[in-house]
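Quick note —
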Amino acid sequence: MAHERAGSNPKFPSFHRKAIDMALEELGYKRDEFSKAVLYNNEFPEKVWEKFEEQCSTEKDKERRKTKKKSTIKTNKKLTAGPVKGILELLRKEGEANIVMLLGRKKIRDARKLLKEQTKTRIRNGDEVCGGIGDKLSTFIMRDFHAFFGLWKGNLKENYHNYLYLQPVDRWVRKISEIIWDEELKNSHDRAAEEIVRRCKEEDINPVCYNQGAWFVGAKIWTFYGPPTTEKKYDKKETLEKILNIVTVERKMKEIKPLVDSICSYG
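Predicted structure written out below.
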């Protein structure tokens, strides 16, 4: 999920997992010694980044030979180093190798700040500062951590406004929201998220369920069938109900299983 952004290569998650395994092996650790490597080996984050780049380079050469065209696989250090390397440095700094446990102990606002500010990293000899995890990706990660691990329930109960930290606004969520509420969301990511949360409160619907359903409608259904015609009028209540119900528990569990397996596979 750390690579869920526009333009990110779909092979990056696989490269990332393999890079961790390769780094563990090269540094003399077993797969179930991930925590030990994260907390006590200063070379581990850099080694994971090195192996990630190696895989991208290898795949790039394969694609070039196969298609005879310029490869589409490339790493953007400013966008990719934070999720790959920076987050490992953050875990070591905080003394907790499990990202779910680390964020879950924080208040929701502090968890968001930690993800955004502390995953910035420097490449190689300290020459280049790379961005960490941004507004959309941090809320995407936190949304699913809340949905599947039950984090920050107390913070949400205390203040409904905190749902904005669990409201990733990509092009699909933005477009669906604009259709439902007949209003353009031209603001920054967090301002748009805040407006969607406010609207959800007015409609008495769960902002997290709405976000997941809206994304599914746009990313999965529109991808195959195309967006609806602009002339068509929508019944707001009916549309919201469909969005909230469109992603069944069974389907969501199938989607989240690789994430859970990935988290549980490392010690």
